[in-house]
Specification:
There is one protein chain. The protein is an alpha+beta fold. The chain has 3 domains: about 10-95, Pleckstrin-homology domain (PH domain)/Phosphotyrosine-binding domain (PTB) (PH-domain like, Roll); about 105-190, Phosphorylase Kinase, domain 1; about 195-430, Transferase(Phosphotransferase) domain 1 (Transferase(Phosphotransferase), domain 1, Orthogonal Bundle). It has 9 helices and 17 strands. The protein has helices at about 85-95, 140-145, 150-165, 195-200, 205-225, 290-305, 315-320, 335-345, 355-360, and strands at about 10-15, 25-30, 35, 45-50, 55-60, 65-75, 75-80, 100, 105-115, 120-125, 130-140, 175-180, 180-190, 230, 240, 250, 260. The strands form 5 sheets. Strands 9-10-11-13-12 form a 5-stranded antiparallel beta sheet. Strands 1-2-3-4 form a 4-stranded antiparallel beta sheet. A hairpin with a 6-residue loop joins strand 1 (about 10-15) and strand 2 (about 25-30). The radius of gyration is 25 Å and the shape is elongated. The protein starts with 9 loop residues before the first strand and ends in an 83-residue tail after the last helix. Belongs to the protein kinase superfamily. InterPro entries: Prot_kinase_dom, Protein_kinase_ATP_BS, Ser/Thr_kinase_AS. This is Protein kinase domain-containing protein. One of its GO terms (molecular function) is ATP binding. One of its GO terms (biological process) is mitotic DNA damage checkpoint signaling.
Length: about 450
């Protein structure tokens, strides 16, 4: 039986610059801390830095090369110089384990890509590698506004989840930084637009829709294996990695994601995409809530209408809660109807799982391009036989996108909760809003 090779902890030499004589130190990187000592015996290390989000590592560059790292010691910033290659290795090992400081030493901003009430997204480039990324910048005054640290805890949870995710269908987190006024999450830069924008400008074929849903189901299978629920799947959170290529779509924005084992069971998400079981107080919902949201996306891609509609975001939320579905599906083949019906089952115990959905014959059916619905708010309800179709007054396109961060209180008091909606990063963030729009938290 082949023995597993034990991975050795990373070690390197570094120097503290002094006016008279530089001093040599040895660094040992362990899973939970950095030890810096004058010898290779680290039991009595002079410097010890726990790897958590309360501590920070700073970087110094010259001529686009790493030349030193810094740590806070007795409220002073201590710099340790080393070779560029050793520092590159250290940087790589520390990514996602601790906040980095002084972001401008590593990244330079090129342009703004989007903006919301509490955040902005910039295109940035790494000064050392010259590779472009996206930087999600979250204002500290927003994060620390609540005394219970709920927003800060959500940010840390998002980071901890993202650092564990590595799949071709999900955007990759690269670095995390903390500045004086903002937190920065450096992400893989997706070159295309959101599926929300793309689908408004293009009529998608059934083959393209099949590619999108298949990619998203692969992502949900991966998240399910890792015990993660996204909780905010919608067209705005599906982005093309390459312009115009729907088979490169990736899931973004894990700001509301939780572990399936978490006791945190608040209602959250975006009205029109929320699974029915999430409206039941303290219901132990599962990863199948994401399957329902993807079903709502599937529906909208097929007929360019929303599953739940209304004049205001409050009406959409209420219709979503009452499960008053629309039906515009027309000329869809039986395989398409069957899959979407199974994904949108009201009872999560009867709803298909992501893995089961991927095995559905719909993904092997290449015989027909039928499936793109014609507009008809009064079409006979084939998909939802026990639900009356609603009269369509608008298609939600003029209602500002919102997301519910969390709802406290019982279901009976749901209608009376309120304050502050959070606009999406998508292109419509400056659109005039209809009705009340605020984050419920």
């Amino acid at each position: 039986m082949q023995q597993l090779i034990e991975k050795k902890p990373f070690q390197m030499e570094c120097q503290r610059k002094h006016f008279i004589k530089d001093k040599l130190y040895h660094l040992l990187l362990e899973d939970s801390c950095i030890k810096i000592a004058e010898t290779v015996i680290f039991q009595n290390s002079k410097y010890l830095l726990e790897l958590n989000f309360e501590n920070m590592i700073y970087w110094k560059t010259e001529h686009n090369q790493l030349v030193a790292f810094g740590i806070k010691y007795n409220k002073n910033l201590k710099w340790f110089h080393a070779s560029n290659s050793d520092l590159q290795h250290l940087y790589k090992h520390l990514c996602g384990k601790v906040f980095f400081g002084n972001i401008s030493s590593i990244y330079e901003s090129n342009e703004i890509l989007g903006s919301g009430a509490s955040s902005k997204v910039y295109r940035v480039s790494n000064k050392i590698t010259h590779v472009e990324f996206a930087s999600k910048c979250i204002r500290k005054d927003y994060i620390y506004k609540r005394e219970d640290k709920e927003r800060y805890n959500r940010l840390i949870q998002e980071i901890e989840l993202m650092r564990k995710i590595d799949h071709e269908t999900i955007v990759k987190m690269i670095d995390i930084f903390e500045g004086e006024k903002s937190f920065y999450i450096i992400l893989e830069l997706l070159k295309g637009e959101s599926l929300h924008s793309f689908s408004k400008k293009h009529t998608l074929s059934l083959t393209q829709i099949r590619q999108i849903i298949s990619r998203c189901l692969q992502a949900l299978c991966y998240l399910d294996l890792n015990n993660i629920i996204h909780r905010d799947l919608k067209l705005e959170n599906l982005v093309l990695n390459e312009q115009g290529k729907v088979d490169t779509v990736k899931i973004i924005d894990f700001g509301l994601a939780i572990y399936a084992s978490s006791s945190n069971r608040q209602l959250c998400g975006t009205p029109g995409y929320i699974a029915p079981e999430m409206f039941i107080e303290k219901y132990p919902y599962t990863t199948k809530v994401d399957v329902f949201s993807l079903g709502a996306i599937f529906y909208k891609l097929l007929c360019k209408k929303s599953l739940f509609t209304g004049n205001t975001s409050d009406e959409i939320l209420e219709n979503n809660k009452k499960f008053l579905c629309n039906n515009h599906l027309r000329n869809c083949n039986d395989l398409t109807i069957d899959l979407i019906k199974q994904m949108l089952q009201k009872d999560p115990n009867k709803r298909i799982s992501a893995y089961q959905a991927l095995q559905h014959p719909f993904f092997g059916d290449k015989s027909s391009e039928l499936g793109i619905a014609e507009e008809s708010p009064h079409e006979i309800v084939r998909t939802f036989p026990h639900t009356k179709p609603m009269q369509i007054i608008n298609s939600n396109d003029n209602i500002a996108d919102i997301k519910i961060q969390a709802i406290r209180g019982s279901q009976q008091s749901f209608e009376h909760l309120g304050s502050n909606y959070f606009p999406s990063f998508d292109e419509g963030f400056n659109k005039p809003r209809c009705g009340s729009d605020h984050i419920i938290e």
